[in-house]
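Demethylrebeccamycin-D-glucose O-methyltransferase (Novipirellula herctigrandis), 248 aa
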Amino acid sequence: MDMWKYFGITHTDHTVMNPMSLAKTRELIDLLHLPDGARVLDVGCGKAEFLCLVAERYKVTGMGLDLSAITFKEARKNVAARELTDRIELLNMDGGKYEPDQEESLDMASCIGASWVYQGHQRTLKALSKMVKPGGLVLVGEPFWKIAPDPEYLRLTEQEADAYEPHPNNVQIGVDLGLTFLYSVVSSDDDWDRYEGLQWQAAERYATAHPDDPDVEVLLRTMRKNRDAYLRWGRDCLGWAMYLFRKP
């Protein structure tokens, strides 16, 4: 089954496509203090909800990049419905291949839950920091280990133990790169339960509505495997946070 199709189906009901509540996301946006006319970039923008919220809060222009044609279509609808097409540009592309017209030209660059674009947390921070002006903001969303993961959890979810770091390490990685750490917000169990639970419901609903889709068997098998891994281990061992840094 195509990865983007699976992701699109399971995230049908998500507004923000990560384990963070909309309320916490808005609170974080209030702390950005972006100046009028600021230029912002969101790599792996999903449905562009974060960009829309930023543009509704501040007088900024933004660009969103996403590789999935499915979520890109939803992003375009979202931006149009919010009447933000004059301030938000969307590109359906691999964010890792994007280069701004000039280095150090953005007021904020973000990559929220898509560090795979740059092959990891550290490389994501490096890539984004090159794009922002001195004094500009770098915002990332990244998983972290709350406790050491069970080997069976790693096997079922096809992950490696070194894929993520503990929460303090995610901060220190940015500090070691010369960034100034400003703030972080951490997902709660409720945030995670909603993020995961919406995927289960969406997959089951899709399977019922599309019984002749040849991908339904793989969809349900994959979703239920991930669901069981979350309920047994993931809820206790895997965290998620958004980290805000400033470039000196």
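The mean pLDDT is 97. Residues 216-237 form the longest helix (22 residues). ok done for today
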